[in-house]
Specification:
alpha/beta; two-stranded parallel sheet; 5 helices; 5 strands
Length: 140
């Protein structure tokens, strides 16, 4: 999937170092620790994960302070105040629709299943190792 999207995949975070910008989306404390570990001096770590009401252990000592790292939360439903004057709802929608037209995104989608077959498929869809990121459900 990474190859189809033009992204370099690495098995281990320790294969990277001194990154200027790190996007973290694993939703785990271990992933956030890795993001902090690979960030370079004065780097920004953009936290994309949503933890709900869970507490997350974050190592804010050591490298976090000595490297002057920035941890920035990102919420897809909001736009930064400094961008709001230029990014109206219609401009954001048009941009999203343009991005969705990228055929490489097809690599993220499972083949469609019928809604009536959903109960038998839930184990696979919600299992520990889904093969894709998004299940398409046909409601017709």
């Amino acid at each position: 999937v990474c190859e189809q999207l033009g992204i370099r995949y690495l098995d281990r975070a320790d294969e990277l170092q001194d990154c200027d910008l790190v996007f973290h989306a694993s939703g785990s404390s271990a992933g956030l620790r890795d993001a902090i570990a690979i960030a370079g001096r004065q780097a920004s770590i953009i936290e994309l994960s949503w933890y709900g009401s869970r507490s997350v252990e974050v190592p804010l000592g050591g490298a976090f302070h000595s490297q002057q790292l920035r941890l920035i939360s990102c919420q897809v439903g909001h736009i930064e105040a400094s961008h709001q004057p230029r990014w109206s709802h219609s401009r954001r929608l048009a941009s999203a629709l343009t991005l969705l037209a990228d055929e490489r995104l097809e690599s993220l989608l499972e083949s469609a299943i019928n809604f009536t077959d959903l109960p038998q498929s839930l184990g696979t869809i919600l299992g520990d190792q889904p093969s894709k990121l998004c299940q398409i459900i046909n409601y017709k």
